[in-house]
Each structure stands twice: as structure tokens, then as C-alpha cells.
Design brief:
The complex is a heterodimer of chains A (231) and B (407). Chain A is an alpha/beta fold and 231 residues long. Chain A contains seven helices and twelve strands. Chain A has one domain: Class I glutamine amidotransferase (GATase) domain (Rossmann fold), CATH 3.40.50. Chain A has helices at residues 19-31, 61-72, 76-82, 92-96, 192-195, 197-208, 217-230; strands at residues 3-8, 36-41, 53-56, 86-90, 100-103, 107-110, 117-134, 141-153, 161-165, 175-176, 178-179, 183-186. By secondary structure, chain B is an alpha/beta fold. Chain B folds into two domains: 39-275, UDP-N-acetylmuramoyl-L-alanine:D-glutamate ligase, CATH 3.40.1190.10; 286-406, Mur ligase, C-terminal domain (Protein-Tyrosine Phosphatase, Chain A, Alpha-Beta Complex). Chain B is built from 14 helices and 17 strands. In chain B, a hairpin with a 2-residue loop joins strand 9 (223-226) and strand 10 (229-231). Classes of the chains: A alpha/beta (231), B alpha/beta (407). At the A-B interface, helix 1, helix 2, strand 7 and helix 7 of A face helix 12 of B. Bound molecules: zinc ion (ZN). Zinc ion (ZN) binds next to loops of chain B.
């Protein structure tokens, strides 16, 4: 069995360097000589079933709606989840997995309904460095957020982190993202898995099992520098 | 107060700012003038023909080339330092009161104001792409601003717009007086969906053309730049060349010659003048640090990094990347992952700047050998004598370009 990472719709959901998350996961697997393949799904191509980890990035309103419609077709995302796949989603990708997300012109768009969250338009836009204490046993999370949506949980859920600096899901709650058995979602781009090597490995370990540690000092140095710069 | 006296005050304030080394003084001059007369830009535009130039990339270079092209026939007032907000535009208009023509670089967000104030003869729209997403808005929001402004465009103003850019086409196509320019393209990083209906935009012919099922698509161009020759709507043919390296500079040279033709200037004469310009506002200027001669290249956003890396790959083997993330650079470095750094492969690459670790992480994943250094001086020590390209983001570039202008 080859570990398969599926990079979904980069032309639609790739506004904030989201390719970086895919590239760094692949790089970390390669350093450990773990067999894997990256499947990039472009607009017009079928979303493959049987992938192990699906990645969704950030995007503008129309692109987000177009992406949702593609992922809704034949229930491909729900099928992937039902067959045990994992998802890592950032920003617009996070929002479209929920029940509803906002678009320009005061529109409310129904999401895929896979995550128990809903997102509404908020003012002002949340832009800047985001720092959060994770709810899983890894180092402090660092990223850059840029979104106008405010996201709320529809049922009791585990956030990815408790916000130390920045906004995250919503100004009044001080939480960022969500973790479920198969999904990790966040407002941290940056890209998050480059700046947070421990999150990258935690995500991979959930799927491939325990991995040997990696000597990759530049990512740790970058992480520490960003945390220090914001604290 | 009389406008002439206000300008005098502004110039004095600008001179004082320069003398006390607070800045170039242009912004101060403009601010003082606007403080005393908020309609100064409008008054300074009366009785003269104005060309406005805007877009994400190539504004400063194009404005410079347009100035040179028009100067073959007349005196031109212009902002030559890239100061393109309200104050910068006002200062440029006040810089040469005799000049019957003004060529003004205008920030994308300032286009509506500049149109209303200066009532230009010609608005030149280059391109729209992702740029400093933390500060400016998403590309569509800027395009919408342009679209509204063009719907209310002053009578008599023509538009010269890029037919290769879907956002520019969408913004400009309502204008009855639009001239389309095309220098060819290879697709667009941000135009995956149709600006009209939001459906998926279909790119054809290796990204040189686009079409949507709703009918929106690339218009047929009036002026086409292809294989070094500009073809006009009346059968004109003008040879275009540029001493500034790169594909973008070449297309900006062509565009400047079209502007000249539209403003009644002989395009052949304009093309010859434009061809001689080799450096604009410190870009591609040379700077000596230690024993190394650095050639300065500016890169601001994914589209300009792609262009610069391609241009630089024909340059010296040694290359230094300097990336900051101050307000003027954009504080978000995620764009690094939208740029293919492959062209650096096999070169001697050094990295510095406030965000050198972000760049280093990016290059590690791309598999590009490189070293992180403290600053330009340390890079120069490592390079030794010889030439190197120095590709810098906005703030680092302008700090270094100042030294080029002095030397
Ligand atoms: Zn359409």
C-alpha cells in the first residue's frame, strides 16, 4: 500500500501558498524513505477515492464556491471520510467542510456538512500572525491568518489550539481550528505545516504510525523564530 | 492661498525632509500641498494632458518608459520614484508646471481618485495579480474598484488595457473607448474562475487565451507585440527592443510605444528612445559591496518573482536573495510557496533578510543548495570578487537602491 496524499484543486484553493503544506509533507516522508505519492487534482479531473490524506487550502469567494460544488458532486469527500481518509484543511477549505460559509454580496452558501461548524462574515477582517497553544502534545502553533469569516462550533468539539495572539475561529472565543478523528482544520496558513513541523509529523503519524524523528533544523528554527517574533 | 505659494511651501517642506535625511521628500511635498488644497491634483491637471498608469506589476518601469517615449515630443511631468499614492501623484503634478503632459504612476487602489481628479486623456491598465494579501485586498476586490471607476470614467478619457489579463478585461470592457494591448501570456495565477459568473475559466493555447461558457473571454487585441515587433490597428509595424532585461520589460517597452502613438507621438521615434533605457529607479543598477559587484533586482509578489528568477537565470552564477516582511513588503510570506525556485538550481545561492529562514525552508523543500548569511556584507565575503545578482523584496531593494543612486 502506497501512502497517497491528495492535493485538491490547487487553482481554486491555493491563495496562501497552500502548496507548501503538500510539499513539506512529501519532503518529510521522503527524508524517512516512506513510500508515498502525491496526487494533484486539477479542475475537471475526478477526485480519486482511496487517498489517505486530502489537503484543502485557502481561496477567494467564487473559487471557494466552485470548489465546494466540485467536492459535493457524487459526495466524493463524504465517501473519502467514510472509507477512513484524513483531511487537513486551511481557511476556505476549513469553512467549506462546515454547514454554511459566507460569500460576497451577503450570500450564505451551504457547505459540505462534514464538520460541525458554521461560518459567518465578520468585521473587521482578521489579518496577522496567529499563535496558539495546541490541544495536542506538540509545540506552540504559529501561522498567519487572513480571513473575514468567523467560525463557531455547532456541537462540543476540540479546537486545534487556544489562541495566544491573533483571532482564530472567532474573536470572542480565542480558539483556532478543530480536530476530529479524521480531520484537522485551521485558520493558520503560512503555510502551517512548514512553520509547525511537529504538527506535520503528528498528522502523518496518525496515518502511518510512529515515525523516527527527523533532523530538519531549518523548520524548527523557523518555528522558534516565528513564535519568538510574535510573543 | 494661491496654489503656486502652496507648492512653494510643499517644496520647502520636501527639501527640509531631504536635508534632514528623513526621506526623499516627495511624499512630504505632496502631503503639504494636499493639506492646504485638497483639490490641488485637479487644479494641477487642468490644461494639460494626463496619462495614468496602474497595475500590480510594472507600474514604475512602464511610467518611466512612457515618460521617455513622450519626451521625444514634449516636456513631461512624472513621478519617477514610485511614490504613487495621493501625495506622490500630487507632488509629481507639481514637479514641472510648464510640462503640457503628465505621465503618472498610480497605485491600484488610488485609480478612482486619480481618474476623478486628473480627468486624464488616457488610463493604462497593466495587470492584476496577488500582491501583499495582508494589506491590499483579494484581486477581485481591486478589479471591482477599477470596474466601478471605469463605469464613471470622465468624458474623453480612453483606456489602454491588457487583453491577456482576465481581471483587466473584466474591469475595462464596459468602457466604450478601450484599446486592447496584447504581448502574450502563459496563464494567470489568480484567474481560475470567471470574473463575470464565477464559473471555471477555461484557459487555451498554453495559457495565451481564456474563455468562459457565459461568453466572457479574451478580446481581440488592437495592438499586438510579438517577436519583437509591434503591430497596430492601422497596419503600423514598429520594432521594439529594451535594454532592460526580461520579458516583462520588453512588453512594457511595447506598451509605452502604444501610449506614445495614442498620444500623437511618432511611435518609431518613441521606440528608439525607449530602447536605450537600461535601468529604472535603481532596478538592474550595479552596487559594489566588498569585492562583489551586485546587480539589483526587485521582486514583490509571486508574478514578479517568477519573472525576476527567469531573467536572473541568464545572469551571473552567484545570487543573493534578500527577503523582508515589513508592511511595504507584505507581512505574510506564504507567497514563497507559489514561486518555483527551480531556476536557482545549480547556482551559488545565498539567503538573507529578516525572513531568511522562511526562504531557507522553502529552498530546502525544493532541493536547492544554499547558505543562510547574516547580511549583504557577509554574502559579499562569501562571493568574493566577481558579479552576483541580488534579488530583493521591496524594503531591502529600496535601501540598497539608494546607495546605487548615490554612487
Ligand atoms: Zn463566466
Amino acid at each position: 500500500m502506497t501512502f497517497t496524499i491528495v492535493h485538491l484543486l490547487p487553482e481554486l484553493l491555493g491563495t496562501y501558498g497552500d502548496r507548501g503544506n503538500v510539499d513539506v509533507l512529501s519532503w518529510r516522508l521522503k527524508q524517512r524513505k516512506i513510500q508515498h505519492e502525491v496526487v494533484v487534482v486539477h479542475v475537471g479531473e475526478d477526485v480519486p477515492q482511496g487517498g489517505h490524506l486530502y489537503l484543502l487550502g485557502g481561496g477567494e469567494d467564487d473559487a471557494q464556491i466552485a470548489a465546494k460544488e466540485i467536492l459535493d458532486r457524487h459526495g466524493v469527500m463524504r465517501k473519502a471520510i467514510n472509507s477512513g481518509a484524513h483531511i487537513f484543511a486551511v481557511c476556505a477549505g476549513f469553512q467549506l467542510l462546515g454547514a454554511v460559509f459566507p460569500a460576497s454580496g451577503n450570500r450564505e452558501i451551504s457547505g459540505l456538512g462534514i464538520l460541525p461548524v458554521e461560518t459567518f462574515s465578520g468585521d473587521p477582517r482578521s489579518v496577522g500572525e496567529l499563535l496558539a497553544e495546541p490541544t495536542i502534545p506538540i509545540a506552540t502553533l504559529t501561522g498567519f491568518e487572513n480571513h473575514s469569516g468567523q467560525t463557531r462550533f455547532l456541537e462540543e468539539s476540540q479546537p486545534l489550539g487556544r489562541v495566544l495572539r491573533g483571532v482564530g475561529n472567532s474573536g470572542d472565543i480565542a480558539e483556532d481550528g478543530i480536530i476530529t478523528d479524521q480531520i484537522v482544520a485551521t485558520y493558520m496558513h503560512g503555510p502551517a505545516l512548514v512553520r509547525n513541523p511537529e504538527l506535520a509529523d503528528w498528522l502523518l503519524s496518525r496515518i502511518v504510525g510512529e515515525m523516527e524523528p527527523l533532523d530538519a533544523s531549518v523548520f524548527t528554527a523557523l518555528h522558534d523564530e516565528r513564535v519568538k517574533a510574535v510573543k | 492661498m494661491k496654489l503656486r505659494i502652496i507648492i512653494l511651501l510643499g517644496n520647502f517642506a520636501g527639501w527640509f525632509s531631504r536635508a534632514s535625511k528623513q526621506g526623499s521628500g516627495v511624499m512630504v511635498t505632496g502631503r503639504v500641498i494636499l493639506k492646504f488644497d485638497s483639490r490641488a491634483a485637479a487644479k494641477l491637471s487642468e490644461h494639460r494632458r494626463v496619462v495614468l498608469i496602474s497595475g500590480t506589476n510594472g507600474k514604475t518601469t512602464t511610467t518611466s518608459l512612457v515618460r521617455v517615449a513622450l519626451e521625444t515630443a514634449t516636456e513631461v511631468a512624472s513621478n519617477t520614484t514610485g511614490a504613487n499614492l495621493f501625495a506622490g501623484v500630487t507632488a509629481a503634478l507639481s514637479s514641472n508646471l510648464r510640462a503640457p503632459v503628465a505621465a503618472l504612476e498610480v497605485d491600484e487602489m488610488v485609480v478612482p481618485w486619480a481618474l476623478a481628479q486628473t480627468k486624464p486623456d488616457l488610463l493604462v491598465l497593466l495587470n492584476l495579480g496577488r500582491d501583499q494579501l495582508d494589506r491590499l485586498s483579494e484581486v477581485r476586490v481591486v478589479a471591482q474598484k477599477w470596474k466601478f471607476a471605469i463605469q464613471a470614467i470622465p468624458a474623453g478619457c480612453r483606456v489602454l488595457a491588457d487583453a491577456d489579463d482576465p481581471f483587466v478585461v473584466w474591469a475595462a470592457r464596459d468602457c466604450p473607448n478601450v484599446t486592447w494591448f496584447s504581448a502574450g501570456s502563459l496563464g494567470h495565477l489568480d484567474a481560475s474562475t470567471c470574473p463575470v459568473c464565477g464559473d471555471i475559466l477555461i484557459w487555451k493555447d498554453q495559457g495565451s487565451s481564456f474563455l468562459c461558457t457565459c461568453g466572457f473571454g479574451k478580446p481581440s487585441a488592437d495592438w499586438v507585440l510579438s517577436a519583437g515587433e509591434l503591430h497596430g490597428p492601422l497596419g503600423q509595424r514598429v520594432a521594439i527592443s529594451s535594454a532592460i532585461p526580461g520579458v516583462a520589460a520588453h512588453s512594457n517597452a511595447g506598451r509605452a510605444v502604444v501610449v506614445a502613438a495614442m498620444m500623437g507621438v511618432n511611435p518609431e521615434v518613441a521606440a528608439r528612445a525607449v530602447a536605450k533605457i537600461s535601468s529604472v529607479d535603481g532596478r538592474f543598477g550595479k552596487l559594489r559591496i566588498g569585492k562583489t559587484i551586485f546587480r539589483l533586482l526587485l521582486s514583490k509578489n509571486p508574478a514578479s518573482w517568477r519573472e525576476t528568477l527567469a531573467t536572473s537565470s541568464a545572469g551571473p552564477k552567484q545570487v543573493l536573495l534578500v527577503v523582508n516582511a515589513l508592511t511595504q513588503d507584505g507581512r505574510d510570506t506564504s507567497w514563497l510557496w507559489d514561486v518555483d525556485f527551480g531556476p536557482l538550481s545549480g547556482r551559488h545561492v545565498l539567503v538573507t533578510g529578516d525572513r531568511r529562514l522562511d526562504v531557507s525552508a522553502r529552498l530546502v523543500v525544493e532541493g536547492i543548495d544554499h547558505q543562510v548569511v547574516k547580511d549583504e556584507a557577509e554574502a559579499a565575503k562569501s562571493f568574493g570578487s566577481g558579479e552576483a545578482d541580488l534579488i530583493a523584496s521591496y524594503t531591502a531593494f529600496h535601501r540598497l537602491a539608494k546607495s546605487v543612486k548615490k554612487s
